[in-house]
């Protein structure tokens, strides 16, 4: 990370090498709020358009510094920073697909990505099929001659089903398609999809990558060829990220390894403890032996403590007691986001999955007793004690 950060810092000095001036550099990365950079001659204008900074929607030092950090993080060739995770997804799809193309998408997917696949893309003549990626034969059977893209999250919201990235890459590449992976719930601290064969990795940086619930942004990492094709589309769509968000996230990204390692370890510990509580009928976390894809998880991730800071669990469907349970929690607060340093919880049936018929939700394992948890960096013993005392409301 430090090597990239130095390289990113050098970007600021328009060619002045950090080695040429060994003191008086800002100790932290400055924020460039300017919308434009000045030039003194047409020769300089031509040079600036080729290789320097011009206008904020085209390029900006804070975005480029962050993009450099993300390329290092994901072990990819090149990255782009967008205004949100959704901007990263739609801008990429607008670039790599055309009318008549076909996408195969995991049916266990973030609600708004589901809408992009089933509404937005179809409006522009792109076909999509949503199938369960728990079964690779369903993915193979969905392939058509015009399949150009296979899409999945590493870990699905809120049931945590995981994607077999190496097998998906094999299926995609055999058929001349790209594999695009959303790494939001896991991050490159846990898994690097590009190393496992994916062609494009995107993340909502709004979540774990930033970790402080105070900025919105998205990243795309891929080969230089793919990224260079997305760059002009991002300019036309107006989806490059704002410099202040890029500056905030670049600052917070410096602690991403410390934070996310602790969040993943806490989640594994909390999941194991909740599974033993008599009021919890089910816990979904890939570290648990009861998780249907536990063996696949052990193949994809470095260990039980290195999978994801996300999990879900199911309590009795007594809405009055569920409210009392939430009120009794001291650490976990309800929030419509995830990945921050504080533990937050969310109720899929009244939020992300509220538009779905109950029977369909139940088929996916989502019941009114389900909570999704994003585990923070608190001491795990405190979290376990707190959940246990709050769960006592179901005693009577
Ligand atoms: C898995 C996943 N992907 C993408 C997004 C979209 O990110 P953003 O809100 O930054 O647009 C979200 C948002 O919650 C998400 O959970």
Automatic annotation (TrEMBL):
The modification N6-(pyridoxal phosphate)lysine is found at residue 207. Its EC number is 4.4.1.2. It is an enzyme of class 4 (lyase). CDD domains: CGS_like. It catalyses: L-homocysteine + H2O = 2-oxobutanoate + hydrogen sulfide + NH4(+) + H(+); L-methionine + H2O = methanethiol + 2-oxobutanoate + NH4(+). It holds the Pfam family Cys_Met_Meta_PP. GO terms for molecular function: homocysteine desulfhydrase activity; methionine gamma-lyase activity; pyridoxal phosphate binding; transaminase activity. GO terms for cellular component: cytoplasm. Its cofactor is pyridoxal 5'-phosphate. One of its GO terms (biological process) is transsulfuration. Keywords: Aminotransferase, Pyridoxal phosphate, Transferase. PANTHER family: CYSTATHIONINE GAMMA-LYASE, TRANS-SULFURATION ENZYME FAMILY MEMBER. Belongs to the trans-sulfuration enzymes family. This is homocysteine desulfhydrase. The lineage of its organism: Bacteria, Bacillati, Bacillota, Clostridia, Eubacteriales.
């Amino acid at each position: 990370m430090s090597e990239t950060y130095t390289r990113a810092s050098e970007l600021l000095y328009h060619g002045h090498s950090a080695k040429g001036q060994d003191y008086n550099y800002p100790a932290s990365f400055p924020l460039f709020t300017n919308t434009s950079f000045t030039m003194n001659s047409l020769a300089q204008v031509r040079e600036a358009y080729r290789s320097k900074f011009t206008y904020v929607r085209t390029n900006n030092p804070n975005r480029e510094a962050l993009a450099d950090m993300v390329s290092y993080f994901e072990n990819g060739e090149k990255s782009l920073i967008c205004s949100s995770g959704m901007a990263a997804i739609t801008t990429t799809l607008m670039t790599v697909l055309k009318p008549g193309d076909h996408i195969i998408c995991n049916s266990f997917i973030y609600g708004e990505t589901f809408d992009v696949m089933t509404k937005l893309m179809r409006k522009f003549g792109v076909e999509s099929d949503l199938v369960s990626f728990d079964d690779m034969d369903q993915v193979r059977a969905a392939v058509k001659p015009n399949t150009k893209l296979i899409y999945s999250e590493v870990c699905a919201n809120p049931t945590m089903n995981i994607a077999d990235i190496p097998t998906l890459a094999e299926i995609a590449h055999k058929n001349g398609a790209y594999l695009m992976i959303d790494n939001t719930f896991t991050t490159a601290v846990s898994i690097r999809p590009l190393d496992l064969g994916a062609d494009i990795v995107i993340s909502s940086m709004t979540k774990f990558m930033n970790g402080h619930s105070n900025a919105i942004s998205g990243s795309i990492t891929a080969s230089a060829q793919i990224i260079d094709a997305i760059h002009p589309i991002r300019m036309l769509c107006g989806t490059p990220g704002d410099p202040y968000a890029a500056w905030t996230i670049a600052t917070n990204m410096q602690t991403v390894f410390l934070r996310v390692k602790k969040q993943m370890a806490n989640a594994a510990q909390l999941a194991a403890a909740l599974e033993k509580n008599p009021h919890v009928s089910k816990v979904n976390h890939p570290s648990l032996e009861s998780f249907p894809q536990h063996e696949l998880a052990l193949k994809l991730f470095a260990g039980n403590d290195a999978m994801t800071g996300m999990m879900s669990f199911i309590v009795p469907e007594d809405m009055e007691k569920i409210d009392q349970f939430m009120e009794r929690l001291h650490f976990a607060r309800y929030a419509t986001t995830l990945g921050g340093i504080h533990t937050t919880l969310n109720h899929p049936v009244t939020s992300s999955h509220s538009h779905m018929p109950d029977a369909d939700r139940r088929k996916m394992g989502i019941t009114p007793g389900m909570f999704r948890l994003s585990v923070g960096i608190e001491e795990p013993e405190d979290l376990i004690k707190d959940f246990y005392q709050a769960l006592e409301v179901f005693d009577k």
